[in-house]
Specification:
mainly alpha; two-stranded antiparallel sheet; disordered C terminus
């Protein structure tokens, strides 16, 4: 089988499994933040951290036991673009709240029939491409020049190996990653209630494993790295590439990222249809349309600046122990919490003295906001 065919099929399969899993389990980082902020539930947060732990442990084991080299990935190459991680991550986090979920979540919603999500994906694709290669590209390049520096080591594993005078990718750095994964496993499973909720547990294990499968497919399949480059699950730029492929074609099978997007839509559709959850969903009113549109643009531009999304940086990037990924994820979490606060109060900044919120004054956006999955 030709390398590009094998890689395309791998992307399609991994995407299909991802879409079906997210649709069936309601996995969503934005939903996890909403559950924590509004109801004090940590169940879906534990599911996300379980996915991080599985991805981290699997990626480090793959690096230790095979020719896979995380240092060849986007996350561990080049300067640390700290300004993009902080600014773009915050924009992305705020935008995903306005848009009802991150890019991957909107792909799943689109597969399940949401017209809202299709508009969000269109605007994400346009704004992301405009940021890195269109009208906003000069600003993007300027921000990269002003907000980047070379720390010497792009990730925690590389730093440990360097301090010990060993080549990057040696055993000590990988062992540290495994120890961090064990610590995450311990915190996740410390809650007996989480162990009894199989959907959240299954989502964390399966999605973390799919990240490892992505690394394997793009680095260890014959000829894969040369055809695509070492990468794993990520959705912002692949969504833009999917739109470009739809408009102008590509002279053959699309690459791993575009097939990942297509597979996610297919998997979500199949899971929604089989579960009787497929339904056409439109906008409630003009305010709902504006909210989703603004959120989509913030996600597209912010995700392009940050180098990824809640999956690209939040799972794939963290699995490499990248410093930039950690910074971007922290900014996404911050932006998401500020977005939830904005929907709750109608203010970007905290209320001043004597201006506490009153229940009847809560914005319509927050009154209609519901988490995307069950809470406890």
């Amino acid at each position: 089988m030709e390398p590009h065919v094998a890689l395309a099929l791998a992307g399609l399969l991994i995407g299909t499994l991802f879409g079906a899993t997210v649709q069936r389990t309601h996995y969503c980082l934005m939903g996890a933040l909403a559950d924590l902020s509004l109801f004090g539930s940590r169940r879906r947060l534990r599911s996300w951290l379980l996915a991080v732990a599985v991805a981290l442990a699997g990626t480090q084991l793959l690096a230790l036991l095979s020719p896979f080299d995380p240092g060849r990935s986007f996350y561990l190459r080049g300067d640390l673009f700290w300004l993009g991680a902080v600014l773009g991550g915050s924009m992305f986090g705020f935008g995903m709240v306005l848009a009802g979920g991150c890019v991957s979540r909107n792909l799943v919603r689109a597969g399940a029939g949401s017209l809202k999500a299709w508009l969000v994906l269109l605007l994400v694709a346009i704004s992301a491409y405009a940021t890195v290669a269109g009208l906003a590209a000069p600003l993007y390049r300027l921000l990269r020049r002003l907000g980047s520096f070379d720390p010497g080591y792009a990730g925690l594993g590389q730093l440990v190996d360097g301090l010990l005078g060993l080549p990057a990718g040696s055993f000590p750095g990988g062992l540290l990653g495994l120890l961090l994964a064990v610590a995450l496993f311990a915190w996740v499973f410390a809650d007996p209630g989480f162990r009894r909720h199989s959907p959240e547990l299954s989502a964390g294990v399966l999605l973390g494993a799919l990240v490892v499968a992505g690394w394997w497919a793009t680095s260890l399949l014959p000829g894969a790295a040369a055809a695509w480059g070492t990468t794993s699950l990520t959705y912002v730029l692949p969504t833009a590439q999917s739109l470009l492929y739809l408009l102008v074609g590509g002279g053959g099978l699309p690459g791993f990222g575009v097939m990942l997007v297509i597979g996610t839509l297919i998997g979500a559709f199949l899971a929604a249809y089989r579960g009787g959850q497929f339904r056409i969903e439109g906008f409630a009113d003009r305010a709902d349309l504006r909210r989703h549109g603004l959120g989509a643009v913030l996600m597209g531009s912010g995700g392009a600046l940050a180098g990824g999304c809640t999956v690209g940086q939040g799972l794939s990037g963290l699995s490499t122990m990248s410093f930039e990924s950690a910074l971007a994820v922290a900014a996404i979490l911050f932006g998401g919490l500020r977005g939830l606060r904005y929907l709750e109060t109608g203010r970007l900044l905290a209320a001043g003295p004597g201006r506490e919120d009153r229940g009847g004054d809560r914005p319509v956006a927050m009154r209609s906001f519901q988490p995307t999955g069950p809470v406890s």
